[in-house]
Automatic annotation (TrEMBL), chains A, B:
SUPFAM superfamilies: Inosine monophosphate dehydrogenase (IMPDH) (SSF51412). This is Nitronate monooxygenase. Keywords: Flavoprotein, FMN, Monooxygenase, Oxidoreductase. CDD domains: NPD_like (cd04730). It comes from Streptomyces formicae.
Length: 374, 374
């Protein structure tokens, strides 16, 4: 599965795998794809360095990348100071904090034991956190830097290019894609409505060719709704130079969701069991629909706060729900292809299924087109 | 573009075109596809007969079909009577009627002149109307009967099969597709979230292969988000035996929207300018987003009534908006591909673009797969 972009990056298959797990990223890269490690959950630069050390050691000398969540617009506190976590905490209304506790109490979610710190906090989308991640990342031979929210700031693009690192940015519309191209990025990831995580309203079938037309000759990766080789063939038929898969890896043997109950929930879920909700971060993100997302999406509730307030507001709560595996509230970002994630496979098995499915789809298309192919 | 299904129907290309316009249906069939005339707007059986006469005369001896909107469940009035239009009218709350008039007044929409009857009323989704359409349709050599809402009743399936007519039904989920298969239908039209008209929440990229797996070996047509040859290739790569296109014909030279302003609006609209709204019929249907849909989707408004009440409630209003071309309110069902409907072409030109784009996509996929094809 070779395109101009895959040749440029020196990978065998134009399959890009986004994952928060270093073991999954390494396995994707070893299998001939391009593993992209999601950095949003790393708060401490040392933790990211440790995992990049590991990834570098286990990638078999093949290329990989990093995905950060850097807002294009700087969030500013009064007096033009860069917004700190404390500033954001101070902006959260008391009523919303009460709603969090009431919702947890209704489902009997225990508090953290006395003295135990909270779990992770998603602060990676605060600019200073993302920048400290980059300070670490450029010490490693990453080949791609992807930004999940908007175009990266110009100095970041320049710094990446100085290091010989290609820059990708996610786009939910042709307009976003054009803005990225103007910002000097190298690859547009066109992320359709059906994708897990932050996503817009245009479905991949429509978005992919629109993005291709908008930024050509810049390469576009098709993202959203892709978890099989047939779906890869569809994305490539739409003009993409590769595909970007995130959800499919969540139920692989190498993934570590820290919750067996959550893995089981993913394996059991159908394609109709996700929702685009602001519950997670304050921006619409597709995730498993749970009583937690229902509470935030309820028109009679207080509703989610804007980014980055919502992420900080719910950080502890989400950690508690995960630690105690409170089933009705337990969720994760995932796309509509969750309906086909019905068995646990190794990353290599997923990869083999993808490439075989792709070949089958090519055979099928050739038969329909009346072509003989060899 | 040949599949088992296209061979069975004796058509050159596995492209099914749904349209409310006989001239478009005939041109699709003549071009080598399969034209399907939408019957929902016909209230009088004689009008349908007149247009089927015309279609038969202009289809060049090639096959075509009819699309009805027949609810699987009979709507019943008290005392087990079949629900009449008068029954439905009586169920509409006065507040909703006031809201219609207020919204029209706010935009200065004139009333019909004294003595002039209202325009069309969409009553085709009332069972007795759909059945009277079938009484007409089976007098013509239609080759396909499609149902847009649920499985057709068993006696209708049996009657179609007695006439040698294949039965298709639209499905927005694998569950719907399975239900159709159990009802004995012959073809499932898997209609994704991005489609115009009544549609569910699962995007085509995910829905198509799910429907294929759910009903195989029954053939599936991919619908939703398809308006180019590349999108056709994608739909076929996903396992469909053909594609079902509706929106793309709306701006063809043969289409008659009765409003130049509406045609201009479609030509100018982007893929983000549609909305899944209950404004039209009471069930979520994708259409141009207008101040009319905004009014019905406003959480502070009365909200749309359930089907079939909403359709009757707004019938006159929609006719008035169209007659007087009140631009901010003027809309039509259309899918997200409206973003690529930027020029008026003849049906034959659209068809040529589709088949050329398909061949390009096949070339591209073969290059990526490293195949030589001839």
């Amino acid at each position: 599965m070779e395109t101009e972009l895959s040749r440029k990056l020196g990978i065998e298959h134009a399959i890009f795998g986004f994952t928060p797990f270093p073991a999954v990223a390494a396995a994707i890269t070893r299998a001939g794809g391009f593993g992209v490690l999601g950095a949003v959950r790393y708060t401490a630069p040392d933790d990211l360095a440790r995992d990049l050390d590991w990834l570098q050691e286990h990638a078999g000398g093949k290329p990989y990348g990093l995905d950060v969540v850097m807002p294009a617009k700087k969030a500013e506190a009064p007096g033009n100071r860069t917004l700190t976590e404390a500033d954001v905490e101070a902006m959260i209304p008391e009523g919303h904090r009460r709603f969090v506790e009431e919702t947890l109490a209704k489902h009997g979610v225990p508090a953290f034991p006395e003295g135990e710190a909270s779990g992770w906090r998603i602060t990676g989308w605060m600019e200073q956190v993302a920048r400290s991640q980059l300070d670490v990342a450029f010490d490693y031979p990453i080949k791609l830097l992807a930004n999940a929210l908007g175009s990266p700031p110009p100095d970041v693009v320049a710094r990446a290019h100085d290091h010989g690192v290609l820059v990708a940015a996610l786009a939910g519309s042709a307009k976003h894609a054009r803005r990225h191209a103007e910002a000097g990025i190298d690859i547009v990831v066109a992320q359709g409505y059906e994708a897990g995580g932050h996503t817009g309203e245009i479905a991949s079938m429509v978005l992919t060719p629109e993005a291709v037309d908008a930024v050509s000759p810049l390469p576009v990766l098709a993202a959203g709704g892709i978890g099989s080789g047939e779906q890869i063939a569809a994305g490539l038929a739409l003009g993409a130079q590769g595909v970007w898969l995130g959800s499919i890896w969540l139920t692989t043997a190498e993934a570590d969701l820290h919750s067996r109950a959550l893995t089981e929930k993913l394996l059991a879920a159908g394609s109709g069991d996700t929702v685009r909700s602001r519950a997670l971060s304050g921006k619409p993100a597709r995730q498993l629909r749970t009583e937690w997302t229902d509470a935030w999406d309820d028109p009679n509730g207080p509703g989610a706060l804007p980014m980055p307030l919502q992420g900080l507001l719910v950080a502890d709560a989400v950690s508690r729900i995960q630690k105690y595996e409170v089933e009705p509230l337990l969720g994760t970002p995932v796309g509509q292809i969750v309906g086909r994630m019905n068995s646990e496979r190794s990353v290599q098995q997923v990869f083999d299924d993808l490439t075989r499915g792709f070949e089958r789809a090519v055979d099928r298309i050739n038969r329909i087109a009346g072509r003989r192919a060899s």
